[in-house]
Amino acid sequence: MPPASHQTIRLSRGRHSSPEHGACVMELASMLAGEGFTDHPRSVSRPIASFLRGYNDLVDDRRREDLYRYAAGTVGTADTPAVEEARAALLLAWADQRWERRASRSVLDRIRFRRAYQERSTDPEPAGTYAAHAIGKVNDETHAAALALVDDLIAVRAPSGSRPEGVELAAGGQLGQRLALEPPDRVL
User: Fold this and answer.
1) How many domains is the chain partitioned into structurally?
2) Three-state DSSP string of 120-173
């Protein structure tokens, strides 16, 4: 049996020891970026990666198939601290709206997840975890909203010329619109 590659790998829940055991969407992104096999690829925005790691584990196998394109689409999204903070703010706003819609979850659950983010507010990554927890039950509506959120997060970009050294633009700079640190208007 030939070794697993980015062309043959199967996306599945959880963290994996090697591509032969499958991969989550971020482990596949690390392979596409030419990094070591990890679910924390350096070339992917930390808030985006955090959200996708959590979301990868929430969805069923059928919907997880939709995440393949985000493995490639997120490579090169690591950006300036200001952009990462803007992405975290977008995740928080989106998640707050989702929590408001979830009558079945207690207010205490929401406060607990939000506090976990605020305690580490210098780190933009927990915002992704907070947003993934806010989804609750995945259905066609929440799945579409989650994918639209990832598209919006990818679109948040630093103005040209202000990117940190060593950070490449996803898809050769053609992916997403470059926004001057302002998240898109769409928050579902």
Assistant:
1) 1
2) CCCCCCHHHHHHHHHHCCCCHHHHHHHHHHHHHHHHCCCCCCCCCCCCCCHHHH
